[in-house]
Amino acid sequence: MKELLPGNDSLSNRISFYHILLLMISLPFDRFYSHIILVSFCVHTLIQLKKGNVKSIFTANVLAVQAVFFISAIATIYTAYRHQAFDEWGRNVVMLLLPLLFCFNSIDLKKYRPILLLVFAFTSTATVLYLYANALITIKHYGLPFRSIFTYAFTNHNFSEPIDMHATYLSMQLVIALVYLLYLLMTDKITPVFKIICGLCSLVLLAGMVQLGSKSILAILFIMINLVLPYYLLAGRKRVWFMLTTISISAILIGFIFNSHTFRERYITELQTDLSTFHPGQNPDPRLARWQLAAQLIKAKPVLGYGSGSEPILLSESYFNHKLYSSYINRLNAHNQYLSFLLKTGVWGLAIYLLVLQYGFKIAIREKDVIFISFMLMIAIVSLSENVLDVDKGVFFYGFFFAFFLFSRSQRKVVNNSELRDSYLCVSGQPIA
Prior knowledge:
The protein has 433 residues and is mainly alpha-helical. The chain has 18 helices and no strands. It has helices at 11-26, 31-48, 60-75, 82-104, 109-141, 157-160, 167-187, 192-212, 215-233, 236-259, 261-274, 287-300, 311-321, 325-329, 337-367, 370-382, 392-409, 417-428. The longest helix has 33 residues, at 109-141.
């Protein structure tokens, strides 16, 4: 039984492993770190590049990850906003590079997938603990009651502000970590100590997601925990009992939300506001109003759209003309990735994006890969309320994990109990028998 850490692998693969690990660890933090690590990974890949190690780059997996970049590049041909279009290229280049890096490296991703996801889960847990510690220190410093942690001052974006992360994008990363830990707990005979660690980390991650207050992420969690995980990982009575237990816990959590003024305001009242009709002077502007203005622009050019980089300028003008001053001042996008594609690239761009999502879902479901399924669900659902691919952290999350799951899947085999136990022993520093 080989160790899951790359101690016996080639020097080149060991360096590649730690680059990938650092990329995953850096995701919850400032984009400076992930960009520096990506540049270093590119340099390392070019230095160690050997013709015999290069995998084919002309595959469906590579094209699926790169598709959004090529959509943006093609739509630049007819845009009137070249400067903004090339800014878009700069963000999306991550999606062009990452699948190529996985192709040009000889590292066996399926071998290291368990330990990489495990370290990512533990790092995500540590990030949530840091945010809670920061909140509690602030509460103590100002002499506030402990229950203040459940007020607006310490939830949603205010909770994630110490690491300068958008609450929804941080929540997306926490979902990957939580689903992997639940996968370990549900499918393998791991050591009791490891079970306790995974269980405690899962509770921390769940608490962090509630604190972050992302409505779309809460919906994804409900689907994953109550339906997808038991359907793919359990059978018979175990599945029934698990579903009864998780649905009961979900009901208790929903009851807690309804009984907390802050969370009721965040999950219920704000959702109603987002879907309400706009009234002049209203602040903040409802999402529905932005969607309606985007739809009006789309009607004028439904086939080709206005080209890459056009969305912020066109919407900004429309916001001002229709008195959505809050959206105008904050230069908000449409907050809907599907409408964004229609606005910039028309029907053809959206059609390609939907085909990419369909391809990802097809692979994930065929492989019964619950972590990959959770990723695809997040992209599909969060795209309804956010422009995931118009912000750096969203692009990096999408590009990295989409490539990671596709390329580890293409070589992946089912990991047995001993390998998962070795994952834990490697992280904990205990010797492997």
